[in-house]
Amino acid sequence: MVRLPCLLLLLLPLLRVSAPEPCELDDEDYRCACNFTSPQPDWSSALQCMVAVEVEVRGGGRGLEEFLLKSASADPKQYADMLKALRLRRLTVGAARVPAQLLAAVLRALGYSRLKELTLEDLEVTGQIPPPLQETPGPALTTLTLRNVSWAAGGAWLGELQQWLKPNLKVLKVAQTRPLAFSCTQLRTFPVLSTLDLSDNPRLGERGLTAALCPSKFPALEDLELRNAGMGTPNGVCAALAGAGVRPHRLDLSHNPLRATTSGAPGCVWPATLSSLNLSFAELEQVPKGLPPKLSVLDLSCNKLNRAPRPDELPDVNNLTLEGNPYLDPEALQHQENTMASGVAPVCARSALTVGVSGTLALLQGARGFA
Ligand SMILES: *[C@@H]1O[C@H](CO)[C@@H](O)[C@H](O)[C@H]1NC(C)=O
Ligand SMILES: *[C@@H]1O[C@H](CO)[C@@H](O)[C@H](O)[C@H]1NC(C)=O
Ligand SMILES: *[C@@H]1O[C@H](CO)[C@@H](O)[C@H](O)[C@H]1NC(C)=O
Ligand SMILES: *[C@@H]1O[C@H](CO)[C@@H](O)[C@H](O)[C@H]1NC(C)=O
Q1: Which of 43, 113, 254, 335 is in the most buried spot, having the most CB atoms within 10 Å?
Q2: 321 Cα: distance to centroid of ligand 3 (angstroms)
Q3: Is there a single domain that holds both residue 201 and residue 147?
């Protein structure tokens, strides 16, 4: 009776010598993460993730072409009951070169699951996504996030991907992804999309924004997030919104190096729906001209304002934030010019850290500027 455990204990060091398990499931069976970095990874290790709610799979940067043949012969309908029973709600797929056909096969299978949030990260998608067969729509995602994904399909990628999703998408986040100029004619309407986050695309600019905001495709948009997206002036953003007929309630332009609008520039009519505008961390030395006449929230914190804005320079606003400007904290300007977070006024340093990627990228860009 006692012998078996002893034997196992003896085996334990031997087992450890072989490559470490690529997948790890936490004690609550909630989160499972796989990192297939070794040259001959043990893919079967991923089976333990079947019980998890949150799964992250990273491919060690390899090409996944070998799975294409396997997926071609598999009919997910056969496994529909099993896929339906999965607890999986959040899935991240990263660090790989993925044939678009394989992505389509995965989305088809996930169509039987109850996945809600999908993140694609550090991927190169090759080829074009084939259109779905009529009776096999993909998952009913509410959130789709793409970070550092490049698409061989060019601007058509969003339209191709959209065909595989049920029309439930509420949140779309696209960062560091190429290309960002969508082929608007191929895009269908996102009927319930309320948040479009194009933050952390420092090369986007107003021109890129105009190309990304396909007219009448985002009728339910409430939040437009453009942190660190290379925006030049609030007026330019206003023009892009007006051109696309996009009517957000909240607009985040923080972490953009904004310039003051030149006095001769044509005015722009902001959407009447806009009630919250974030212009923090925008290097503003004065309040830009041509802001919406009335707002409930205006965040001008962590800029370079040297004096208190006069009432005639400001919109009619209920909730104005001016913290972290040099006229309130004389040391702030000096600190900001040093650009190191350690020196920035405390309120600004804290946000710069909590903002995560935006803050990091902003700092990196700042550092590059000095190199
Ligand atoms: C995956 O493994 C590689 C190599 O060991 C490592 O550099 C990387 O940070 C890991 N990724 C994650 C998300 O743990
Ligand atoms: C972006 O993804 C590619 C793979 O497509 C990878 O090689 C690269 O390191 C990633 N970049 C960053 C900043 O993570
Ligand atoms: C003003 O906005 C800030 C940030 O959104 C919030 O914390 C604060 O409660 C708001 N104040 C009022 C009076 O609405
Ligand atoms: C404005 O943006 C900054 C940085 O992105 C953030 O810390 C702050 O909470 C935002 N303000 C409002 C009112 O949402």
Answers
A1: 254
A2: 9
A3: no
13 inside domain: no
- Distance from C-alpha of 73 to C-alpha of 75, rounded to nearest angstrom: 7
Angle CA 325–237–120, to nearest 5 = 95
Can you tell me which atom of ligand 3 is nearest the CA of 319? Answer: 1
Domain that holds residue 311: 194-259+268-366
Distance from the Cα of residue 261 to its chain's centroid: 29
What's the CA-to-centroid distance between 94 and ligand 2, angstroms?
10
Calculate helix-pair angle for 234-244, 205-212, nearest 10 degrees.
Answer: 20
- The ligand placed nearest to the CA atom of residue 351 is 4
* Cα 54 to Cα 52: distance, rounded to the nearest angstrom: 6
The low-confidence residues of the chain, meaning pLDDT below 70, are: 1-19, 135-136, 261-266, 330-346, 350-371
Tokens of residue 276, six digits: 């919250």
Is residue 70 situated within a structural domain?
yes
Q: What is the pTM of this model?
A: 0.87
C-alpha of residue 17 to centroid of ligand 4, in Å: 49
**25 Cβ below 6 A of ligand 2:** no
Q: Ligand 4: distance of its center to the CA of 346 in Å? A: 15
Q: How many domains does the chain have?
A: 2
